[in-house]
Automatic annotation (TrEMBL):
It is a multi-pass membrane protein. Its main location: membrane. One of its GO terms (molecular function) is transmembrane transporter activity. The chain crosses the membrane at residues 21-44, 64-86, 93-111, 117-140, 152-174, 180-196, 260-281, 301-321, 328-350, 370-390, 402-423, 435-452. The gene is LOC108745122. GO terms for cellular component: plasma membrane. This is Facilitated trehalose transporter Tret1-like isoform X1. It comes from Agrilus planipennis (Emerald ash borer). Residues 24-457 form the Major facilitator superfamily (MFS) profile domain. Pfam families: Sugar_tr.
Amino acid sequence: MIPKVAFLSKEGNFRTRLFPQYFAALSVGLGNFYLGTVIGWTGNNGLDLLNGNLNKIPVDDDELGWIGSLFNIGAMLSCIIIGQLCDLIGRKWSLLSLALPNILGWLLIIFSQNVEMIYVGRFIGGLSSGAFSMYGVLYISELCEKDHRGALGTIIGSLLIWGVLIAYILGFALNSKGSAIVSCCFPVLFGLLFLLQPESPYYELQKGNDEEALRILKRFRGKFHDVRKELEQIKFHLEEEKLNKVSILESFKRSEARTALWVSFGLMLIQQASGLNAVIYYTSIIFNSAGIDENILNSQISTIIVGALEVIGSIFAILVIEKVNRRIYLSISGSFITVSLVLIGVYYTLQERNLVTPEILADVGVLPLLGMFIFILSLGASYGPLAFLIPTEICPPELKGIITSVAATFSWFLAFIVTKFYLNLKNTFGGDVTFYIFAVFGILAIIFPLFIPETRGKTLAEIQNEVKGK
């Protein structure tokens, strides 16, 4: 049972209980949290793995690239599978089904006897967590009120970042094996808490379970809210979509479907191609290769600082996301992302092209630190959470499953490409060229948001009407 203690807010003349909505966001967000621990596991354990400290298994640069990137292949498949299951068995049970396989993935790593077992463990880790990046937000966007949807969706995104930070801290405090053992506990906690949550009212209405949908809305809105009015609005919207339903191929010929598709793909492209996962997966290695004096700032400590800055960025996003124009907010964030990537690239140019003396290079050693910190802070406050929130807001209901599934799969595919070939690209062309390529997509992050629909403060039905031009 959800406690009846309530935080109260106003929406028109109705008072509404916020605690159940925030508790639901926290519960499903724990799935995103354990996704973050899987992503961040290599961040401070990369050098530990290269030194063969995990069960005395020798690992080279290429194998480390596979350890980092195979997770993304699993995450891609996770989005495809869960995208279908969400429409068959519901959002709740689809997401709950991921917890047990995630535990199995960690156990394979903990008891690994060779690098192939680590590969399989990482693949299963991605398969059992990748879908949370999109479908956790989808679940809460269908459950909460419009005035809190942005904040709650951002909370879910920020919990992924918290998971990454905790993984960094565990890697520093323990080692690759010890951090895997602790991380194995998080999917258990998720399963216990999320089991208490209901199904999405949208899903219940799609299945004709009107009374159950009404019960869920009463639980999450409180007795002062006109629940039946909201229920009728949702039903009307779903019925309208049902009457206009055509084949999937025909659906994609409609302007609102095409808009949802290009916006979703564009946001995912910017998020991943700007180097997000390369930085997260190889943070300590990037700092180490940048030549930062270990006596001044240990690379593992730097990694933790990076994770903490991403958390700070996500907290900032939670506080402002319902108060600012999201298009302008993303565009301004894109400018900071671009500048930060150029700063890192400039340092690598000076270092790798031998353009300055070692003394001068030491004097500008703050550049990669400054660039990394600005990059993580800016991305954590913008494209990190919003790239997953906005697609769930603008997709037509009948195509929400397939578009979010394809978009999330595209995101993890890009993450695989970036994480697998980052070290190869850096070793072949240099760190400067690599980060200048990332900076090109940073420029896209400035321009692209100006052409997407604004979603702040609107119901899902209102957003659809706007996209349709009604």
